[in-house]
Structure formats: C-alpha cells, structure tokens
Amino acid sequence: MGKRKIYWVFLLFICLASVWFAAPKEASAKTGRGPCGSNASWKYDTKTKQLDLFGHGVVKKAVHIKKRMNLKRKDFYVEKLVIHEGITSVENHIFKNVRFWGEISLPHSFRKIPAGMFRDLDLIKRLFIPENVSVVEEPAFWRCHLLREVSVSQRNRHYCSVDGALYTKDMSKLVYYPQAKESAFYNIPDSVDEIAPLAFAENSYLKRVKIPAGLQELGGGAFYGCISLESVNISELYKLIRIKDFQSDFSFSYGRMAATVGQRNEGGEPGYNGALNEGGYWNSSTEKYGSLGTFAYTHLSSFSMPDSLQYIASETFRGSAIEKFTIGRNFIGGINFGREFAQNSVNLYYLDLRRLSLSSGNKKYILEGNILYTKDKKILCQAVSDKRYRKDTLVIKKKTRKIARGAFRNISIYKNIVVEGDLDRIAVSAFAYSKIQSFRVKGAVREVGMGAFMWSRVQRWEYGGGLTRVPANTFAYSDLKRFDFHSEVERIGNEAFIGVDLMEVSGTDSVKKLGHDVFGECNFLAELEFVNLESAGIDVCDIHTKLIVPETAAVSFPFNGHESKLRDWIAGRIIFIPSGETAGKCQEAASLFLLGLSYAPFMLQMCLQL
Question: What does the mean pLDDT of the chain come to?
Fold first, then answer.
C-alpha cells in the first residue's frame, strides 16, 4: 500500500473516531426522572425531547435537574410537554429549567391555568383548553409571542373560543387575543362589555380594532406594545369611566418592565436618569415590577376621549405616536401631576403633541391658546408645540403657582418665560430639552424638581429667592451662564450643574451639602467658595473648578481609600479653609512673623555696629 493510500485511510479513521466519540454522549442518559413536590414527579426523554408530569392535585415544586443529563447542557430542551391525568394545576415558575419550543397537552383533570404558567413556556403556537378548566388567571398568556390560536373544548362551561381568541362562555368578556394572530383588523363582538388586562398586548399585526360602544371595563395594558395599531374607536364608547395601567407585583423580568434604581447621594436623594416619571427612579416603598399603559408603544396618532371618561392612568400613552389629543367633557383626572404611576393622573409630557382640544363643559380644565391650566389656573399642566402660537415671550400670570411635570418638555415655540408671581413648585422635567433661553420669576420659587431644566437652552435664570434645595440634575447640560443661590440654598443634589458653562455663581455661603459631581465639567468656573459646607462628594476626574471648603467638611471621593494616589492631582483644586483653632494659631504665628520683620532693620543695624 502506497504512502498516499495510507494517508487517506488514516484521515478516514480519524473522522470516524471523532463522530463516534461525539455522538453517544447524549445516548448515555436518555431518560431522567425526579420529584416536583410530594404529589408529583417528572420524566424527561433526551431523545424525543418530551417532558411528562405525573401525579395528582396541584404541582407546587419546580422541575429541577440535579445533574447534567449530557455534557453540553443542563437544561431541558422540550418539544412536547404532556401533563397527565390527575394533575389539576401547576404553580407559577415550576418550569425554571425548561427551554420550551413545541406542543402542550393538558389533561381532562386540569382545572386552573395560573397567570405565570406560560412564563417559561412562551414559545407555544397552539393551545387546547380541556372541558374542566374553570379559571384562567389574567394575564395567563403574557409574552406568548408565537401563540396563534387558543381552542376550547365545546363541553367547557366557562370558556369558549372564536376565531382563535379566548372568551368567557357568555361572550361578555374577551380574555385573550393571540399575539401571533396575523389579522390587521378585529371587530370585537357587541356582546363584550369587558376586555381583560393585556388581552391584545404586543400583537404586532393589528392595525384597527373596533370596540363595542357599550364596553364598561378596559383592562390595564390591553393594547400595550401593539406597534402597528393605528385606530381604535375609543371616542364612541359611552359607558367607559376609566382607562387603567396594568400594574402587578408579579415579577415579570422582561424588557421595559424591569425596575431601575437611581444612585443616591449622601442625603439619600435619588439620582435622576430622565427615563421615568418623577425623577426616573423607583421608590422602594412603592416599588413595582411593571406599569404598562393601555395604549403605550402603539402607532396611534390621535386620541379623543369619550365624554363618559373620567380618569386615565399615568402610563397610558407612553411611547405612542399621538400628536392630536382631545380632553372629554367629564374628565376630572390629573394631567402631568399626581402620584407616581397613579391610576387617576395621566402623563402627556412624553408625547409630541401638536394639537390639544378641550370639550365644552369640562369643569376641571381651561385651555388658553396652546396652554392647558386647571380651571382655577393654579397649575399650568401642559404646553403644546402648536406653531400657531409661536412667540418670543410667554407671560404666566400671578394665579399660577405650579408648573406641572414636563409641562414645557421639548417645547421650541417660546424663547422667554416670565412668571409674574410666586411659584410653589416647578416639577420634574418641567422645561427639560426645551428651547427656552430665558426664565424669569418676579417672585419666589420654593421648590424645583429633579431634571427641571436639564438639556434645555436656558441661559438666563432669575428668581426672587425662596429655594433651599437644588435637586439632582436640575440644570445638567443646559446653557445656563449665571446662578444666584440667594444665600438660602442649603443642599445641592448630584450633578445639579454638570456640563454647564457657568461663568458666575453667587450666594453660596448658605450651602451645607453638595452631592456628587455637582459642578463637574464646568470649565469656565475658576473658583467657588463654600464657607459653611459640611459634606460634599467630589468626582476628581471631572472637576475643573477650584473649590474652597472648610477644613471640617467631610469630602468624599469615588476612590475612597486611595486618596494618596490622587494627592498630586487634588492639590490646588480643593483648598481647605482652616478651622477656628487652626486659624487662631496661624494668626498668632503670622503676628509674630510680622513683629520679627518690624525689628529686622534695628537688629541688622546693631550687628553692623558690632
């Protein structure tokens, strides 16, 4: 046999050996078994990718693999899930180790589909609900992206299916419309007076939906994330009183529902990221995993309230394309003011509104040109980017005491704002990203919200005093040139003036606490003195301003414990004013030194004579 043939035979042997050693690893453990509670067990076949659940009653314990069933992975890759007779339900999150793609078979004994059952089985395409299921918790099918059809046994006395959508048996409630159903238009039957929470959520095919005029209950988040939705006949409804957000403590950990927590400064003040309402943070006392608006992230371009509507929840329109908005006759809910994630106060400031209308007879609000006020004019709620009202200066009368959350956000039709009286509050993001160049309050300003003027074009900001605190990011990256603290401000929050080309700051003698990086990237401020400062957070990487602070001030750095490495850098940028005792000693030494200098000529003369 020649060398060439030997080479090819050897190469073939190597290839066969690789296939031999790679292939049988899974065959070594074709079946796995284990308990999932005192009354149930599971079995999994690695060859057929089928997972079976056996037992009776409710399965309460998670299906969990204690050791790997092959060398490549430790999770179940399930193509078919079979729940056998005797099992009546499963609790949430029992399929933690399941990576599912396929078919589900429910037994006749099954009675309840819990809200979290399909969280880890979200790739099902079709589902059959047997006759004994009497409870489908809401929202049971959230994030089932591939589900095209739900069918129900004709003998089921509680639910039925029409064109793949799930209804209660009497057709009074639409429970679920499949996310992967590809119709562009859907006409909800006239018998329906209630739509379940998240019923249509994240269906990307629907463009138009016709709702029965007699609908009484529209579930929170019903059309959330329907990105193609352009038209809903909401204005025709005559019984709908409230539009809710979907809020739940069920910990969906998906996308926009994930909670974000801002950094806190030394006083416990939350940081501001500009993304969410009221400072962009989640208050620990009211922490929520999700607040999904009913028409959030849709393609609706206009919205007209029905006259029956009284309240709309805060996140209802977040991320939508609405430019025209009409407030109904009986609407009494808040607009851009109220509690965080409130069900009775809607936020409009994140919309790019170009037209705003108010139905005649509304007793809560008044519309003057493009500015919406409460009826008593105490709160300025919303300014609209209606070019018909473009002018250099807007004058806000003395009656107005509050400017609501985001009221002038992104507004570009005014250059100057003049407030004739006092302001009790300028709320969060009130002028953020606006093109306003001058803001003048003839009276006092008592409170300013986080991020109120961040990324705005404001250069001139004047007020008659009253502030005791400047919160986080208030003027961050704005065009502000000068600011007067009026010797009243005691606390300045994190990054309050970061990125601002300030040229002059006055009235700082009252300041006791500075957050982190308050004047970071302020390149034109040569020196700032805080004679009564008690604590400060300094980011040495961004500070360009020489800070003069008391020796007793507690100054913290992001690299605490490593100040020695930064000593050369810090030197000359932070100057400590000596304390009273040290200052006395310095003064005494200076006096002695001067006394010595005064006697120097006399001593020199004596030495020369000698």
Answer: 82
Using a pLDDT cut of 90, give the percent of the chain over it: 57
Given a contact cutoff of 8 angstroms between Cβ atoms, the answer to whether 292 and 354 are in contact is: no
Residues 6+ apart with CB under 8 A from 303: 234, 295, 317, 322, 324, 325, 326
Which residues on neighbouring strands pair with residue 59, listed in sequence order? 90
Which range has the worst mean pLDDT, 282-291, 315-324, 476-485, 499-508? 282-291
- Rounded-to-integer distance, Cα 594 and Cα 298, Å: 78
- CA 434, 438, 441, 445 torsion-angle sign: positive
Class of residue 202 by CB neighbours under 10 A (exposed 0-12, middle 13-18, buried 19+): buried
Element (H, E) at 569: helix 563-570
More confident residue, 43 or 374: 374
Q: Using one digit for the tens of pLDDT, what is the confidence trace for 231-251? A: 999 999 999 999 999 986 544
Provide the residue type at 205 as one letter: Y
Q: What is the 3-state secondary structure (H, E, C) of 420-467?
A: CCCECEECCCCCCCCCCCEEEECCCECCECCCCCCCCCCCEEECCCCC
Please state, as a whole number, how many other Cβ atoms lie within 10 Å of the Cβ of residue 110.
21
| Residue type for position 286 | T
| Residues 444, 464: Cα–Cα separation, whole Å | 5
Give per-residue pLDDT as tens, 97-144: 777 778 888 999 999 999 878 877 778 888 999 999 999 998 888 888
Q: How far apart are CA 182 and CA 164, in angstroms?
A: 11
E strands, 526-570, are 527-529, 535-537, 546-550, 554-556
CA atoms within 13 A on the CB side of 569: 14
Asked whether the predicted pLDDT for residue 411 surpasses 90, the reply is yes
Of the candidates 568, 585, 521, 519, the one whose C-alpha atom is nearest the C-alpha of residue 548 is 519
What is the per-residue pLDDT for 27?
45
Rounded distance between C-alpha atoms, residue 348 and residue 406, angstroms: 8
Count of all residues that appear for the chain in the document: 610
Distance of alpha carbon 72 from alpha carbon 87, whole angstroms: 32
CB 493, CB 514: distance < 8 Å: no
Q: Give the helix ranges, DSSP H, for 189-308.
A: none
pLDDT of 324 above 60 = yes
The CA-based angle 62-63-64, given to 5 degrees, is 100
8 Å CB contact between 453 and 470: no
Structure token digits, residue 333:
């809910």
pTM of the shown model: 0.81
Q: What are phi and psi of 15, to 5 degrees?
A: -65, -45
Residue 388 has a CB neighbour count (10 Å cut-off) of 10
Identify each DSSP E strand in 313-407 by its residue range.
324-327, 334-335, 345-346, 355-358, 365-368, 371-374, 379-383, 393-396, 402-403
Q: What is the pLDDT of residue 70?
A: 55
pLDDT reading at 378 higher than 70: yes
| Maximum Cα interatomic distance, the chain, rounded to a whole number of Å | 129
C-alpha span between 120 and 90 (Å, rounded): 13
